[in-house]
Design goal:
Number of helices: 5
Strand order of the largest sheet: 1-2
Largest sheet: 2 strands, antiparallel
Order of helices and strands: HHHEHHE
Shape: flat
Strand content: under 5%
Distance between the termini: 46 Å
Helix content: over 70%
């Protein structure tokens, strides 16, 4: 699986965070970009579907929505051993509705 190989390669790199190092490493740059783009597309589909179901309009674009969710996930991953799962559930429940405007 391509994603798994990229992740394993990233974790072997030293001196930078795995993602930062992979972005700077030419042989992984395209794979990391593809993975990030796929995640951004997935988040955007969720945001737009939630907007449709709640008869709202997204307040942000796809890149901004992905950046917000990615930041929350990164924080939860760092804090996972300290019980961040409940924190993550709470953040996800409030972030998604907050990304869409209320109907006029």
């Amino acid at each position: 699986m391509r994603v798994r190989a990229v992740i394993v390669s990233m974790l072997r790199l030293e001196s930078m965070t795995p993602l930062g190092r992979a972005t700077m490493t030419s042989e992984l740059r395209e794979d990391v970009y593809d993975i990030d783009r796929g995640l951004e597309d997935m988040i955007w589909r969720i945001v737009t579907r939630d907007a449709d179901l709640s008869e709202r309009s997204p307040l942000v674009d796809a890149k901004a929505a992905y950046s917000m969710f990615d930041g929350v996930f990164e924080t939860a991953l760092r804090d996972h051993l300290a019980g961040a799962i409940d924190w993550l559930r709470t953040r996800m429940a409030t972030l998604l509705p907050g990304l869409c405007a209320r109907p006029a």
